[in-house]
Every structure is written in C-alpha cells, then in structure tokens.
UniProtKB/TrEMBL annotation:
Record keyword Secreted present: no
Protein's name in the database: Carboxymuconolactone decarboxylase-like domain-containing protein
Pfam family, one: CMD
InterPro entries in the cross-refs: AhpD-like, AhpD_core, CMD-like, Uncharacterised_peroxidase-rel
Source species of the chain: Rhizobium rhizogenes (strain K84 / ATCC BAA-868) (Agrobacterium radiobacter)
Keywords recorded for this protein, A-Z: Plasmid
Length: 205
C-alpha cells in the first residue's frame, strides 16, 4: 500500500497511547494484538519503517512471515516500473475492487495513490464512490468491469470479456496482470476487513 508520508513520521508510545507526529490515538487498530516494534526481527522493523508505521503493516507484523509474504508480493506487483500493466491501471483496479468489497483501508490508500498519479484527486474519489458515474475511458471502464467480475462473479467471466479488452489494445500479458491485481486486492481486502484494521488518522486530517 502506498503512503502519504514522504519521510517517516515521529512515533512515541506512553501510557498505552501511540503518538504519531504529535497526534495521540488508541492502539486498538486491529482485532489482534499489535506487537511492540522494538521486539520485532530487524528486517520486519525495517519493513514497518519503509511503510511509515502505517496501521496495516503494524497489524501484519504480528506474524513476521505473514508480513514478509504480504509486502513482498505487494511491492513487486505495484512497482512503479517493470510491470506489464501501467501503474495507473493497477491503481484503478485496486480502487474499484476495494470499493466493491467495502475495504476502507485499501480504498482510502489507493484512491489517494490513484489521484496522485493522475494529478486529479477529485476524479479518483469519483471512481471510488461509483466508477459508473466517473468519466472513464473505454479501456478504464472495461478494466473496472473485469475487476468487479473477478470480485463478485468470476464464473461469469467469458472469452467475450477478454476479446473486448483485446479490442482496446490490451495484450494477453496485461490481461493476466489485470486479473492478478484484482485477485490480489480481493485477498488484501479480506485480510484487512477480517482483522478490523483501521485507516490511519492522517487520512482524515
């Protein structure tokens, strides 16, 4: 998941409260225990720091192997370069899937990232609210429709869905990555929703 911090925040804990950049908050950010970062393996401490101590990565750090698997796949799939499908298409899929599933953490993260990529945060928010009402290109709408089918009714996906996207000049390699991205976000949404992970306060300031 992307971060709105360009530098790591200032974090301290006292009397059961965590303070991030001077803003106090309850530590109940997940239905499971949040480990003390000082007790984590060094590579997991570095991983948490790399993702700016956000709630989702702190929650997953409870099981270092889970955190490694989760972030490893995410960081590779959402690398800015070197993938088949352009990053803005991957972010579009992340927003649409997360909005469809009602995953607040993933939706708020990736709506911000999508808006930053396009330099149009209002458009990204409209997509998150209801992509049918947003002024999407034919390519974007077809990718969003595919993402919703992967999410809600994968057995209804037909050859015609892929032919429609091929007609919009998407390659089979890009289509595979589109399905992978939609499927991955269904995974992340379900983990995040099940654990009751809260979005970080910084998204509401």
């Amino acid at each position: 998941m992307t971060s709105v911090y360009s530098v790591a925040p200032s974090i301290s804990t006292e009397n059961g409260m965590t303070t991030i950049d001077g803003l106090a908050r309850s530590q109940r950010i997940s239905r499971l225990r949040i480990p003390d970062e000082s007790e984590l393996p060094e590579d997991i401490q570095a991983l948490v720091d790399r993702h700016h101590h956000e709630n989702w990565v702190r929650a997953l750090s409870l099981n270092p192997d889970t955190a490694r698997r989760f972030t490893g796949h995410f960081e590779h799939l959402f690398a800015a370069t070197g993938r088949r499908l352009p990053l803005q298409d991957r972010e579009l899929i992340a927003v649409v899937v997360s909005a469809t599933n009602g995953c607040g953490v993933c939706e708020i993260h990736h709506t911000r990232a999508f808006g930053d990529l396009l330099n149009d945060p209002g458009f990204a928010r409209r997509v998150a609210l209801d992509y049918h009402l947003a002024d999407l290109s034919k390519r974007q709408r077809a990718l969003a429709d595919l993402a919703v089918k992967v999410t809600l009714s994968p057995k209804t996906i037909s050859q015609a869905d892929f032919e429609k996207l091929r007609d919009l000049e998407l390659s089979d390699e890009e289509l595979l990555e589109a399905v992978e991205t939609a499927s991955w976000f269904n995974h992340t949404n379900r983990v995040t929703i099940s654990l009751g992970i809260l979005p970080d306060d910084k998204f509401f300031s």
